[in-house]
């Protein structure tokens, strides 16, 4: 065959293979059998072996069809939550006791609990509809992840179709990981090719999966373990153990070291067994995960914050190493906190190269007498930020570290607050407020960060550059950037490292975030003491950004009024948090930013947990002794039904559920004309026995 004929046949085959790849990997609708497809590829490779120049940029070098553009976002039907951690054996016993207390069970009740290794990899959710894999998504922020379906389909461990015994719809969740031997071989290959080696198997797995070119993912030795599920209208079992065995029967890989235990002693015995064999396992693990076996009890226990009450990760002991403390830098956070950061001579701790560590605060530095030049002990446990636990050897000629009394960013006085307790706050803070450039830029970074606005392309480095160059000074400036750039003489795409495509992508990402969930909007404001959980509590209670502002302005008018009382009565909002929110809205500069933001963005009310229940949207208070459920279980039940649970009674309370021994709250309900029912009345109201 002449080269011309070979080139013509190669072009025809390449187009045909590319079309089949598209049909299979993107449309999930193959048009030929696997055998016929393999024959086409073999002929393609045969031609390329005869004429090597044909292989350049050939479809034979790719597997599947590369996703077009950046990964699309996927909203999880059921949130992918993280696990609470424990580090001591006694905390495992407390985990069991806590579940029994919540459920109102006697202390000697036997609870069956599964125990399995905690894989150090990347969380993944696989959605099967009509038993076919239709979507794969990373965890992301728990509510929204990245669509990596095309990449996942290249992993041999992940079946593209489940057997007939599987339900029509189910989301299988688990971990993408890389075995240690495969990781080592991959790094050797990358080094030989002049590429930068990967940091560790976990980063290797995550980086390999998040490739725009799917052939790179296909070339990486990724594996999968299934251990949980998301949306699943019909479950094949009523226990955690039964669910995982069902996964196994469907052809999904599950961890062979998972066991079912009946006591805390059995859990700890398995934990220490796994810990002892950790170094011999072919993959990295950082602990053992315990999950209550009974799914009915799991549902009753529910969730707290972003973690289930019925599961916990028992992390392994910290790994330590020694190195030289080369410097102590002071970072100024968005709330003005001065945080000392240790700069270290790089050292490997638990398979990760560490060059920075936390020093917490000035009291910790003084207590440990850590000095620049010392040889210090570094500790790292799982994914916890490395910390200095002490001095191994005093450096020659070192002097005690003197913590700065002024802000290194703006020169303002830095003080330790005393909120009337007579004891100084552990954290020293800059008093400069928003005149401090560090606080302003850190607030901007927080606003655009992953768990807040999550603006792709506007990472910390870019935020800092844009702030320094005067492009953004406040959050609302982000949303006027495109319009201002259109009027500017010096366009954004003329900056070093930028082009028309990257600018267009940034503007599109910003535009996409003009609509956002109310809780993320509140969290993005960076109000002191307001984390993601508290932001969600406020969002569910006040429903809109406008109503929140109106009520907080009213609360700031006096020490005693209905708005302030309502805020303090919200379950989960303490006095410190309440004061922080009121202080934020009492500052004119903050109100200016808030109002300017609302002209650019449209925060959306959170979806109610339930909208058709008799108590959806009502404010409920529980008081007295409950006999059929614990107080915590009652609160969790009410929230699942769409009610707002308050800690005290006001005229805005809709319902008081009063058990025996009800006291002042019952009197307050009578004073405000609030409807009062007993526990039996509650179950009758919500339609449960």
> How many individual domains?
5
- Overall geometry: globular
Overall pLDDT confidence: 86
Mind summarizing the main beta sheet? 5 strands, mixed
Q: Looking at CATH, which topology of the largest domain would you report?
A: D-amino Acid Aminotransferase, Chain A, domain 1
Strand arrangement within the widest β-sheet reads 2-13-10-3-9
Please tell me the CATH architecture of the largest domain by its name.
Answer: 2-Layer Sandwich
CATH class of the largest domain: Alpha Beta
Give the distance, in angstroms, between the N- and C-terminal Cα atoms.
81 Å
Amount of helix? 25-40%
The structure class reads: alpha+beta
Radius of gyration: 29 Å
Q: Give me the CATH superfamily of the largest domain.
A: DNA ligase/mRNA capping enzyme
Strand content: 15-25%
Low-confidence stretches: 23-30, 32-36, 61-69
- What's the number of extended β-strand segments? 26
Q: What does this protein look like?
A:
The protein is an alpha+beta fold and 689 residues long. Helix content is 37%, strand content 20%. The strands form eight sheets. Strands 2-13-10-3-9 form a five-stranded mixed β-sheet. A hairpin with a 5-residue loop joins β14 and β15. The termini are far apart.
């Amino acid at each position: 065959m002449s080269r011309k004929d070979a080139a013509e046949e190669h072009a025809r085959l390449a187009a045909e293979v590319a079309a089949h790849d598209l049909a299979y990997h993107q449309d999930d609708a193959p048009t030929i059998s696997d055998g016929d497809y393999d024959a086409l590829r073999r002929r393609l490779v045969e031609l390329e072996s005869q004429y090597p120049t044909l292989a350049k940029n050939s479809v034979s070098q790719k597997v599947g069809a590369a996703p077009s553009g950046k990964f699309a976002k996927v909203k999880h039907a059921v949130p992918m939550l993280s696990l609470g951690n424990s580090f001591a054996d006694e905390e495992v016993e407390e985990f069991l006791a806590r579940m029994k207390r919540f459920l109102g069970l006697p202390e000697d009740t036997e609870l069956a609990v599964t125990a399995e290794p905690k894989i150090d990899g990347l969380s993944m959710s696989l959605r099967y509809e009509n038993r076919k894999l239709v979507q794969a998504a990373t965890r992301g922020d728990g509510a929204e992840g990245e669509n990596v379906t095309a990449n996942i389909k290249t992993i041999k461990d992940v079946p593209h179709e489940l057997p007939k015994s599987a339900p029509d719809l189910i989301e299988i969740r688990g971990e993408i990981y890389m075995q240690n031997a495969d990781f080592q071989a991959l790094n050797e290959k990358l080094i030989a090719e002049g590429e930068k080696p990967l940091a560790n198997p976990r980063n290797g797995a995550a980086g390999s999966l998040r490739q725009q070119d799917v052939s790179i993912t296909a070339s990486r030795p990724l594996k999968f373990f299934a251990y949980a599920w998301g949306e699943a209208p019909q479950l094949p079992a009523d226990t955690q153990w039964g669910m995982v065995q069902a996964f196994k029967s469907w052809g999904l890989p599950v961890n062979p070291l998972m066991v079912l235990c009946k006591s805390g002693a059995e859990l700890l015995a398995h934990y220490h067994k796994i810990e002892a064999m950790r170094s011999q396992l072919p993959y990295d693990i950082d602990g053992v995960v315990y999950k209550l076996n009974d799914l009915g009890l799991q549902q009753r226990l529910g969730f707290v914050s972003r973690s289930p009450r019925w599961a916990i990760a028992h992390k392994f002991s910290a790994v330590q190493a020694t190195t030289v403390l080369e410097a102590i830098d002071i970072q100024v956070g968005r709330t003005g906190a001065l945080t000392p950061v240790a700069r270290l001579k790089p050292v490997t701790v638990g398979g990760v190269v560490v060059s920075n560590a936390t020093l917490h605060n000035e009291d910790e530095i003084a207590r440990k007498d850590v000095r620049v030049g010392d040889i210090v002990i570094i500790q790292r446990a799982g994914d916890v930020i490395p910390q200095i636990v002490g001095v191994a050897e005093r450096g020659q000629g070192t002097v005690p570290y003197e913590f700065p009394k002024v802000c290194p960013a703006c020169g303002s006085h830095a003080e330790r607050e005393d909120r009337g307790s007579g004891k100084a706050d552990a954290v020293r803070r800059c008093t400069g407020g928003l005149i401090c450039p560090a606080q302003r830029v850190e607030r901007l970074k927080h606003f655009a960060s992953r768990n807040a606005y999550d603006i792709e392309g506007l990472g910390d480095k870019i935020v800092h550059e844009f702030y320094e160059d005067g492009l953004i000074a406040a959050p609302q400036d982000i949303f006027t950037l495109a319009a201002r750039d259109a009027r500017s003489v010096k366009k954004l795409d003329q900056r070093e490292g930028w082009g028309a495509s990257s600018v267009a992508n940034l503007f599109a990402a910003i535009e996409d975030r003009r609509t956002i969930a109310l809780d993320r909007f509140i969290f993005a404001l960076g109000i002191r003491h307001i984390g993601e959980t508290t932001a969600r509590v406020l969002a569910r209670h006040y429903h809109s950004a406008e109503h929140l502002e109106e009520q907080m302005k009213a609360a700031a008018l006096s020490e005693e009024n209905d708005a302030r009382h309502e805020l303090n009565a919200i379950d989960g909002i303490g006095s410190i948090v309440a004061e922080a929110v009121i202080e934020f809205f009492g500052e004119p500069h903050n109100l200016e930013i808030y109002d300017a933001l609302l002209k650019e963005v449209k925060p959306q009310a959170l979806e109610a947990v339930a909208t058709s229940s008799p108590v959806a949207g009502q404010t409920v208070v529980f008081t007295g002794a409950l006999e059929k459920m614990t107080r915590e279980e009652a609160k969790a039940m009410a929230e699942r039904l769409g009610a707002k649970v308050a800690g005290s009674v006001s005229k805005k309370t809709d319902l008081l559920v009063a058990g025996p021994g009800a006291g002042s709250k019952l009197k307050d309900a009578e004073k405000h004309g609030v409807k009062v029912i007993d526990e039996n009345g509650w179950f009758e109201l919500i339609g449960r026995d």
